[in-house]
Amino acid sequence: MWTVDEHLADILAAVSPLEPIELQLPDAQGCVLVEDVTVPVALPPFDNSSMDGYAVRVADVAGASEEFPAVLTVIGDVAAGAGGLPEVGPGQAARIMTGAPLPPGAEAVVPVEWTDGGTGADAGATGTMRPASVAPEGAAGEVRVHRPAEARAHVRARGSDVKAGELALAAGTVLGPPQLGLLAAIGRGRVRVHPRPRVVVLSTGSELAQPGEPLAEGQIYDSNSFALAAAARDAGALSFRVGAVADDAESLRAAIEDQLVRADLIVTTGGVSVGAYDVVKEALTADGEVDFRRLAMQPGKPQGFGMIGPDHTPLLALPGNPVSSYVSFELFVRPAIRALMGLADRPDERRPWLRAALAGDRVLSSPAGRRQFLRGTYDAGSGTVTPVGGAGSHLVAALAHADALLVVPEEVTDVKPGAELEVVLLG
Fold first, then answer.
1. Looking at the chain, which terminus has fewer C-beta neighbours within 10 angstroms, N or C?
2. Residue whose C-alpha is closest to residue 404's, from 348, 330, 338, 321
3. What span, in angstroms and rounded, lies between the C-alpha atoms of 211 and 52?
């Protein structure tokens, strides 16, 4: 039998990051950058106001107070995106909005709350600007300033975020919302990335019916393809779920060949054991492209892996029991997806592993020579993990209530309450 680590190493040795492509920013979310991106222009590109208020000269508001306000002549408005800026001279002020460029002559911005808002209100009143559309006269007249301001007060300096020529994002960065925002802010509309892999998930079994359809005698609903397609999306892939294929080798071969055109990775579930109707093994063994093996683990002993089709597309064949298929996905498929994305060597991109004490009063038993993966719930406050359900590989309800996998090593046959275990956190 293969060990879990040997099987995973065999998969990762065969799977390489997808070839880089250039994508528009909305399509690059979740992808890995393959080039350093430098800043073409400073950010912000000009000195601008961080407040709604008045652009002033420092000397004109020195000593201003509520009792003795500085009275300045308002010479116009400076709105965000404005050009043709007015020049602020002695005794003058320009009404300025957040993000608007600092006009020439101005040295600071006094927030509107420090003024009468240009309305002639009594000293000490909180200033409020009236909208320019309904009160255009607010851009002229006088404003009373009740506090002094230091030079550069409430001014965001050109290049205070990043300067031209600096590194914005390094190759290997995963592009999330903040990173995409930065790229847009520096004017990049397209980037070169490893694309998100296209994962096709295919269930097998004549007993499978689709949710929403009536069950015939002996049938069950196909849950694996829904769970694994969602798990593939959660891992960062674009996933495509194929309806269940009946237990017929020719039909399965045809279904897989049809999917190769849109697949960077194919995942099958079911049909990999030693039964008379295990058609995945039957359909994919003949050409020798897929190797079916037994692993020293529970659940998930039967597994298959190979490279198929003209483009040598990786295929992982997982067991059909719901818990077995999901545990196998977490251990083998998820790392393969991350490898296709260019993240195989990033420890921070893997599921968190930690140690936790076994809660409860029940001794856990585990078969000798097998690495067992049990479902559980992790309590970060107490540093404990509690088993959920039993060891059966069909217990999909217990899996739905678990947020962790308890890992019992091959050489351990029982785990007493309070003993420490390795735990894999899910989600």
1. C
2. 330
3. 56
